[in-house]
Amino acid sequence: MTQNKGKGFTRRTFLKASGAASALLGSAGLGFYGYEAGKDPRTYRGWENWEGVNQDFNRKKYAVDKPTYLKVGETSRPDARSDVIFYRRGLFRRQWRDETGLEGLDPYLQKYYRQNPEHLELDLYSQNELMPKLMADTRKYRKQFLLAAAWSNAMGAVGPPRITEPPEKSDFMLNRRTGQPIEAVQFKDPVKTSKLIKKMAHELGSTLVGIARLNPDWVYSYTSIGRGFKSDEPIEVPKHWQFAIVVGTPMSWDPLYANPTYGTSNDAYSRSRIIGFRLASFIKQLGYGARPHTPGTDYDLMVPPILVDAGIGEQGRPSIVITPELGNNFRPAVITTNLPLVPDKPIDFGVQDFCKHCKICAENCPSGAITFGDPVEERGYLRFKVDTAKCLNFWNSTLGSMGCRLCVAVCPYTRKANWIHKAALKVTADDPTGLTEKGLTFLQKKFYPGPDPQTYYMPSLGGENASYRPPPWWLRSEDFIE
Amino acid sequence: MSFFSSGFFWFMEGVFACLAVLGLKLWAEDRGIPMPFWKWILAGIWVVFLGFTIAFVGTSLGENEVVAARLGGILFGLTSIVSGIGLWRLLHSGRKAVK
Q1: Would you call B16 and A26 a contact, using CB atoms and an 8 Å cutoff?
Q2: Backbone angles phi, psi at A394, to 5 degrees
Q3: Which of A332, A383, A451, B71 has the fewest beta carbons under 10 Å from its own?
Q4: Which residues of A130-147 are buried (b: 16+ CB within 10 A; e: fewer)?
Q5: Which chain B residues are Cβ-neighbours of A49 within 8 angstroms?
């Protein structure tokens, strides 16, 4: 190349200057690209589109033969009347009288509270002190959360009717003339049927879907919410509950980060509930038994271990399941069925180890419900135990659209699907040394801090109605309402 | 779809990268700086890291994570500057006087 010294601005000089300018423009472009990637609503997985494009984690690579929870002793099934906080609180409120005390409760509640006296204190505290304070603060600060509450209620306003008949009746499509179940069609191949069911689940709006062989240990031994079962009779696991199909959707991302005050579970609950009923209807029309177990509380079984069995994710420290695609921002429904299917394998993408070290959810949990300790045995299985009574009491200690979900909002796995967080997940899952995991957890704590957990409480309990992140513009009542 | 998430944006980034490499080559020749392959590799790694830093700050700001943008900018930015100075000195090693 000729150098034309003395001729002023040469072609060579022009190319060098272009190179420098290109470096600057390229760098600036990356900055703008990053900004757009951070804002891009297409990174809000599970809300931008259906068709299953969000279930893009290579599960086969991380498939394991046994679930990542450990069976360590003799197993027993949970009694929903006492072990499930929502049902227990309902029964407790109906049955408790100060004059009769513990003796006035049904025997199973008496037994539970004798074994767990701290929960009697927490349930009494909720009834006698917390709820009146919640009512008073709700009246006082109602206006601030008006849009959030209205949005949450709107999301929960539509849904299929509750199941009232026993499984042998409600789980089948009956011939109107004979009253007998319609004849089941014969499928050619369970592998193809499983593929069909997964496609159908995605078509019906499910972000993630998986299949497990139903472990009877997850079915309640007793329940108190009906669905064709009597509260004083043990549940016999119906013979046609052979497989469990799990479906689910995430909660809307921006309000999720504005928890515990502005978020809601109703959005994902409603979608997953409708998907569950639709998929059950699809299966029933083909002559097979199907029962949806759906949010908020219409279950005959425990959902998290079924998600683990189906390879959707792993059960983490906050006791809910962490998925590779959505973190624990995932609200599931389960369909039990006898449609011949092929179960998926559980996956191990490092959550158990990650949760042992991370503890961000425990540090940010205002109620102290999430343990800092190791997994403990419960009904024969090892798992991180959450004190659900403390958890629910915090729900009633905060204003807004009800609930908490902070353990979802702060989880390092629960991030939008932009390049930073996708890369972090990929590196963490593939690093056998665990060093990346520790480094990224350290950065997560420094880079994404939240307010002091005590500020999340409502003002009458010494808090400030704080949220993990500011609410999205469309939930700020003060900007819209006089 | 915005310009910055389009294929055309990445095409332009490619054009800019080619021009920047050509400019660096000419600049090094004019200054008598030898550019063996390992210098190109080191320069490439540094450019990728700098790009990561800029994109990290941008993405964090887009996510409204101001603390992450600030701390990431300081941490990765300082690393870029320090390693950039080191790389600059390394690039000049073996420099011949240009007539």
Answers
A1: yes
A2: -70, -35
A3: A451
A4: beeebeebeeebeebbeb
A5: none
Smallest Cβ–Cβ distance between A30 and the set B15, B27, B55 belongs to B55
Chain B: give the shortest CA distance to residue A36, in Å.
6
Mean pLDDT of A436-440: 89
**Which spans in chain B are helix H?**
7-31, 37-62, 66-91
- Of the candidates A318, A294, A313, which has an alpha carbon nearest to the alpha carbon of residue A425? A313
Distance (Å) of CA A470 to CA A58, A450, A451: 34, 11, 11
Q: Where are the beta strands (DSSP E) in A10-121?
A: 70-71
Say which DSSP state A347 is in: B
What is the DSSP code string of A124-177?
HHIIIIIHHHHHHHHHHHGGGGHHHHHHHHHHTS--PPPP-S-HHHHTSPBPTT
Which tokens go with A185? 């069609």
Residue identified by tokens 């991180």 is A384
CB contact under 8 A, B55 and A1: no
Among B8, B12, B15, B19, pick the best mutation site for testing chain A contact (most A Cβ within 10 A): B19
Give the CA distances from residue B81 to residues A261, B8, B76, B84, B89, in Å, rounded to whole numbers and listed in that order.
Answer: 42, 30, 9, 5, 12
Residue B48, chain A, CB below 8 Å: the answer is no
* Contact predicate A50/B41, CB 8 Å: no
User: Do the chains contact at A447 and B58, CB–CB below 8 Å?
Assistant: no
Within its chain, how far is the Cα of A18 from the centroid? 51
Q: What pLDDT, on a 0 to 100 scale, did the predictor assign at position B1? A: 63
Please indicate if any CB of chain A lies within 8 Å of the CB of B72.
Answer: yes
A473 inside 8 A of chain B by CB: no
Compute how many other C-beta atoms are within 10 angstroms of the C-beta atom of residue A234.
12
Confidence label for A144 from pLDDT (cuts 50, 70 and 90): very high
Q: Which residues pair with A208 in a beta bridge?
A: A248
Cβ contact A397:A455 at 8 Å: no
Q: CB within 8 A of A344, min separation 6: which ones?
A: A59, A210, A211, A212, A310, A311
Partner-chain residue, chosen from A33, A446, A470, that has the shortest CB–CB distance to B4:
A33
Q: What was the pLDDT predicted at A21?
A: 95
pLDDT band at A2 (very low <50, low <70, confident <90, very high): very low
What average pLDDT values come out for chain B (99 residues) when binned by 10 residues?
A: 86 95 93 91 95 96 95 96 95 71
> Is residue B12 packed enough to be buried (19+ CB in 10 Å), middle (13-18) or exposed (0-12)?
middle
**Residue B49: closest CA among chain A residues belongs to which residue?**
A27
CA distance A91 to A82: 9
Out of A1, A40, A420, closest to residue B56 by CB: A420
DSSP A433-480: TSHHHHHHHHHHHHHS----GGGGS-GGGT-----SSPPPGGG-GGGT
pLDDT in the model for residue A157 = 92
Distance from C-alpha of A37 to C-alpha of A208, rounded to nearest angstrom:
23
Identity at B88, one-letter amino acid code: W
* Owner of token pair 């369970």: A190
Q: Report helix, strand or coil for A301.
A: strand
Cα→Cα distances A297→A152, A230, A273, Å: 16, 16, 10
| Residue spans per domain, chain B | 3-91
